[in-house]
Structure formats: C-alpha cells, structure tokens
Design a protein that fits this description.
By secondary structure, the protein is an all-beta fold. It contains no helices and eleven strands.
C-alpha cells in the first residue's frame, strides 16, 4: 500500500509564500504521477497541480499558474508545492495524490494539510 503524508501547511499572510511537501512510500516513483488538490469546507475538491515522474511533465490549474510550482523533492521520495503570492482564495486543505502515470484515477491520497492565507 502506498502511503502519502503531506506537511508544510500553516498560516501565512496574503502575498507570502509557503512550501508544501508530500512524502511517499513508493519504490517506483518513476512510474507514477503525483498531484496536489485542495478543498474548502462545503465545496468540491479541485485540482491544483500535477507532475509526471520520468517525463517530468507538469500541469497547473489556471488559478495558480505562475504562482505555484510543483517539483520532485528527490527521486522516489515525494513532491513539493512551492506557493508564492498567496491569496486568501488559496485557503484550503491541500491533499497529495498519486497514481500510475497511465491510470485515469488518482488511487492514493494523503490526509491533507491546512493552508490558511489571511487578508
């Protein structure tokens, strides 16, 4: 079973930066894709960013493009999400997800880490 553990969430003022990390137990990191999603109370979970390991392809939601950067922390270890120019609308619980690169669904999920951006 693949386990994902998010960390790095916290309170930050608008315009500030925060870096989230997601550690994975996967031993075949090169064959998987990982992503960040976020969710606020009462709303559906939304896609934030994804990265395909091996090909190193990345994809971002329009709302975070140019502000957030997803990257590999270390081969087989996990991914990070560098969040800059944070806005109150970025406030949410951020979840790390993983899947085989060829799969359509995100099979593995972390428990989430809370990011609060004050105005």
């Amino acid at each position: 079973q693949v386990e994902l553990v998010e960390s790095g969430g916290g309170l930050v003022q608008a315009g500030g930066s925060l870096r989230l990390s997601c550690a994975t137990s996967s031993r075949t990191f090169g064959y998987v894709s990982m992503a960040w999603f976020r969710q606020v109370a009462g709303k559906e979970r939304e896609f934030v960013a994804a990265i395909t390991f091996g090909g190193k392809h990345t994809r971002y939601a329009d709302s975070v493009k140019g502000r957030f950067t997803i990257s590999e922390d270390r081969a087989g270890a996990g991914v990070s999400l560098q969040m800059n120019s944070l806005k109150p609308d970025d406030t949410a619980v951020y979840y790390c997800a993983a899947k085989r690169s060829s799969a359509s669904e995100w099979s593995y999920w972390g428990k989430g880490t809370l990011v609060t951006v004050s105005s």
